[in-house]
Amino acid sequence: MIPLIATTLLLATSALSLGNHGGARKSLSFGPKHPTAKLNVPSEQVHAASFGLEKRAHCGHDYDPKELAASFVQSLHGGGEFRIREDSYTDARTGVSHIYVRQIVNGAEVMDGDINVNIRDGQVISYGDSFYRGDTPTYAMDPSSLFEPTHDQAHHCEALSSHLTSFLATPSGQVPFNPDHPTEEDAELLAMLHSHNCPSSPLDDGEPELLVDPSVSALNFMMLAAPDAEVSAALKANYGAHLELLTVIPTESLISTSPAVEIHNVPHTTGSVKAQLAYVQTPHPEEENMTVLNLVWHLTVPMEDNAYEAFMSATRANRLISVVDWVSDAYVPIPKPGKEKNPVYNVWAWGVNDPSEGNRSLVSGYDKTASPAGWHAMPSSASPYSADKKPKVPEDDEDPIMNFTTTWGNNVFAHENLDGRNEWEFNQRPDAGSEMIFDYNYLPAKNFTGTNPREYLNLSITQLFYTANMIHDIYYRYGFDEKSGNFQQFNFGKGGKGNDAVICNAQDGSGYNNANFMTPPDGQNGKMRMYVWNTAKPWRDGDLEAGIVIHEYSHGLSTRLTGGPANSGCLGWGEAGGMGEGWGDFYATTIRSTSTYQDYAMGSWAANRPQGIRNFIYSLNMTVNPSTYKTLDEPGYWGVHAIGEVWAQILWIVENRLIKVHGFNDNLFPPEALPNGTIPEGDFYRPATYTKKGKRLPLIPKHGNTLAFQLVMDGMKLQPCRPSFFDARDAIIQADEILTGGENKCELWKGFSERGLGPDAMLKGGTPWGGGVRTDDYTLPEGICDVDDTPENGPEE
Predict the structure, then answer these.
(1) CB distance 137 to 282 below 8 Å
(2) Are residues 536 and 585 in the same domain?
């Protein structure tokens, strides 16, 4: 039983300690300490000749290292049974042979009975030994005669609770977390371990059995390993039904004679669960430095975010004795609030498109799920700098993570590029110092002419850094993550290829009145070039218009998601290339929009034009923006930007259809993850739903703008390489089918059909660059809506 005070302490620390880890995935990992296990160096030379082994050539040696290891183990443990493991090898660099030996008792492996023998030049130089040293057990005939496990999950959690109590308890009995406590980091790690390994509702102890059914062991383990408490509770509530679905198939083992099976249909697994009878050791209840053997079902359990090797008692159905997660998080120590200042930026905050829409403000914070190390840190190994040219870091920073005081971090490298060069690593960046306050003047005085944006260069770089990181974080939260090819130097062990943070050039001197983004395949840096605009006096800086930055970054999004992260050639031309531009406009417009509807122009501040840089502003009114699919046939619409604005206009119509039905959310960011990694519904998502097997389904954004944001991104992942408008339309509709069961298909089709992209729209004679003859269609698929309210005279205004 977990002490009440420890439970209270855990609640007091969970928000702080686990929040720093960015909602880490749940990972079980614990086991008993073996009193006999240690590394040994022989006091006397142990040479091949000591065992009378023949000197003969063997794989470059004068002897067989495995034969020497076997003789050595026999000398340690007499006639006990063991096997030499196949993963033994000789290190080509050191010449040391590493021979691994596994103990066998009663034909079953002792899963923690291991000896590793290190051999060099025919001599044992060291060895580790955790073999069981007691009497060989016999199979019990009476459950009451069985040993009670001396270590299991309950013992482990009780110890964790005790440690938490000692770290955090105060004389008054109060449990506030003191950020200046010298053991803060220890307490944080303990709290995270407790949260992951200790269930809030432990399984009932149950009665001893001679041999537990392996399918029962597998299902019981899954209740403990389920990613969150809700899933575990759902499994428990429908236990009998889940158990009936399991099928057990006997298998044979080449290395063990103990029973082995495969168990199919275990909930929340990605494949069959393998189970085999084995032994594990726990401390002897009475004799010091001795262990007892526990008969267990050795389970290997594949899951979406974990790969477990678990040991469930074969005589106590609900007891988990030890477990190892083969998936190792690349743990990066997160900058602590008490050690590093929380960065603050004086910028036009997220949602303020440009200086004409509002004033700057001091803002801070990052999304801990998307950027678990923050915006100014990365492991040293991930930094593109050579070892002798590392940028300035705090002198007292001894962590394996580099904390930067400039606009340099895991997601974005932002700097000036006034000379328009390709070199960027050592370009100028603002340095906020130890206080981490990025606050710089903005003084575009009207009497200045020419290149006066240089006078506020540090502000421009800061704004670009801030906006690009916000884009990274929000796209991450909607699914542009490591596996799908996002832009990060370090991927935290979550898949994909790293070393590809976005290189952001502020006030790039290679051009004017433009911006661009280079998207190579995953694992190579994206590069954004932002330019000064000479369209007004004083000149304007594109870095300060968020919509332009969002548009450019979105090229990286759509290119990496369409056709896969390794293929950057799917949006090169024609309708596909045009949609690459349109998605950027769509997201830029969505991010700046508010609950009070209004039309929006693209790039109007930088270009100093009310209508912006497109042919029309984005509007629901056909008079203001008459674009339809057929518009692509008109002169001037073969270019990708013109094609893109038609696509963006269609998506704007679709989004506002969804807003009309589902309402508007002022905050596009989903809620932060809970300590156990679960994303709460809050007021952002609809209540969670589950499959019949208890698996939590993807959360559905409850508002129209957030739902559109999600469906458009999901559609990019579904569509083919070089998609047409029809492909992209159908992918979004399919995305809704996958996410919601198709409940929005009527509104989606209405939105597409309103601008001519109905089911019978056609393109004849299409060319790679976007030419051809198009036909608009304003109808809806038959039966798609309960009530057909297709506009009688074309699109609705």
Answers:
(1) no
(2) no
263 falls within a domain: yes
- Least confident window among 2-11, 256-265, 771-780: 2-11
560-573: burial string, b at 16+ Cβ within 10 Å, e else: bbbbebeebebbeb
Q: pLDDT tens digit string along 464-518?
A: 999 999 999 999 999 999 988 999 999 988 888 899 999 999 999 988 899 999 9
* Amino acid present at 706: T
User: 385 and 282, same structural domain?
Assistant: no
> Which contiguous run of DSSP H or E holds residue 740?
helix 725-740
Q: Which residues contact 166 (CB under 8 A, 6 or more apart)?
A: none
User: Which helix (H) or strand (E) is 39 found in, with range?
Assistant: strand 38-40
Catalytic residue among 340, 552, 575, 645: 552
Q: Which two tokens stand for residue 300?
A: 């290997």
How many whole angstroms separate alpha carbon 447 and alpha carbon 54?
Answer: 94
Amino acid residing at 694: G
Write the single-letter amino acid at 391: P
* Per-residue model confidence (pLDDT) at position 564: 85
**Nearest alpha-carbon partner for 518 in 556, 571, 550, 481:** 556
Annotated binding site for Zn(2+): 329, 551, 555, 581
Contact by Cβ (8 Å): 611, 624: no
Q: Which residues are annotated as a binding site?
A: 329, 551, 555, 581
Residue 425's identity, in one-letter code, is E
> Bridge partners of 167?
none
Would the pLDDT of 113 be above 50? yes
CATH number of residue 54's parent domain: 3.10.450
Question: Is 174 among the domain residues?
Answer: yes
User: Helix-strand-coil percent breakdown of the chain, rounded to 5?
Assistant: 30, 20, 50
Residues 6+ apart with CB under 8 A from 394: 340, 403, 405, 434
Domain of 586 in residue numbering reads as 570-665+701-797
Give the burial class of 401: count Cβ atoms within 10 A of its Cβ; 0-12 exposed, 13-18 middle, 19 or more buried: buried
- Tell me the three-class secondary structure of 547-562, residue by residue: HHHHHHHHHHHHHHHC
The more confidently predicted of residues 580 and 679 is: 580
Residues 6 or more apart in contact with residue 645 via CB below 8 angstroms: 581, 582, 585, 602, 614, 615, 616, 627
On whether the CB atoms of residues 338 and 184 are closer than 8 A, the answer is: yes
Q: Which residue has the tokens 């930007």?
A: 641
Query: How does pLDDT run across 122-139, given as a tens digit for each residue?
Result: 888 777 788 898 888 876
Q: Which is it for strands 97-105 and 81-84: parallel, antiparallel or unpaired? A: antiparallel
Nearest residue to 777 via CA among 749, 748, 743, 746: 749
For residue 178, what pLDDT is reported?
33
Instruction: Let me know whether 208 and 316 are in one domain.
Output: yes
- Please indicate whether residue 655 is annotated as part of the active site: no
Asked if residue 351 lies in contact with residue 390, where contact means CB atoms within 8 angstroms, the answer is: no
The residue assigned the tokens 């029309």 is 616
pLDDT tens digits, one per residue of 263-310: 999 999 988 999 999 998 888 888 888 888 989 999 988 887 666 778
Confirm if 227 and 678 have CB atoms less than 8 A apart.
yes
* Model pLDDT, residue 140: 57
Amino acid at 452: N
**CA pair distance 226, 232, nearest whole angstrom:** 5
Measuring CA to CA, which residue among 495, 504, 644, 651 is closest to residue 582? 644
CA-CA-CA-CA torsion sign (668, 672, 677, 683): negative
b/e per residue, 248-266, with b = 16+ CB within 10 A? eeeeeeeebebbbbbbbeb
Tens digits of residue pLDDT in 621-673? 999 999 999 999 988 887 888 999 999 999 999 999 999 999 999 999 999 88
* Average pLDDT across the chain, whole number: 81
Q: 155 and 13 share a domain?
A: yes
Q: Of 60, 95, 129, which closes a domain?
A: 129
DSSP annotation of 629: G
| Interval 602-626 mean pLDDT | 95
